[in-house]
Amino acid sequence: MSHPAAPGLAARSISAGYERKPVIDGLSLEIATGRITALVGPNACGKSTLLKSLARLLPVAAGAVLLDGDDIHALPTREVARRLGILPQSPIAPESITVGDLVWRGRHPHQRFGQRRTASDDEVIARALTATGTAELIGRPVDQLSGGQRQRVWIALALAQETPTLLLDEPTTYLDIAHQIEVMDLLADLNEQASKTIVLVSHDLNQAALYASTIVAMRDGRIVRQGTPEEVLTEQTVREVFGLDCLVVPHPRSGRPQIFPLGRRTTA
Known about the structure:
Blueprint lengths: L8 E10 L2 E11 L4 E5 L6 H9 L6 E6 L2 E2 L5 H7 E4 L11 H6 L14 H13 L15 H14 L4 E5 L7 H18 L2 E5 L3 H7 L2 E6 L2 E6 L1 H4 L2 H8 L3 E5 L6 E5 L7
Parallel strand pairs: 3-8, 3-9, 6-7, 7-8
Antiparallel strand pairs: 1-2, 1-4, 4-5, 9-10, 11-12
Helix pairs in contact: 4-5
């Protein structure tokens, strides 16, 4: 399948952080449209800070984030919400809200003030719930769900927003391995069938290698290397980024690189 080449989302020499302490400084990155990009790196390396900056959840102290060529901070909030769907880390739902009402909030950017919910909205919500395996939870209060169920409901909300670009901060958090793969397969389907641009933060290098077209490896607020999984996930780069010795071997079916850590208890 052919993908558009021009990036729709880009960071231009951005600096951002918290309480006047920069986490990333002068960082530039172009996100390829219609592809899956995974941001990887050790804790506190700047992955989530970069994603929040791209999503306009965190202001930049310098530089600019461009969305389809426009400065994202100059765009109306509703317009950004029509173009970017965002799943932050550990989102919080209003108390006692049901799954159906939470996912319905994903339709708000597409509504005029005072407009009522339509049959078309219901169809979009139903598709999002079905895609994430949460249709049977539609009437349940979100605060009564398990962590894995809540995570899938939040992904459903992002899908209901129907944006061309999705930004997800550790989307498989709290999920068991079967549901992790279901979510990653869902994201891959959205990318391939609907040409959605997907940017995700991941701590799982092997999942990132299997599903992403581009890997961006970060350390200490800078990009160490970016490219295809084969280009980035080498033994040398994993050692440089994570301080970890490992073996990298091709997946027996996909051929994508898979990482096997070498700890003190690893036998020869």
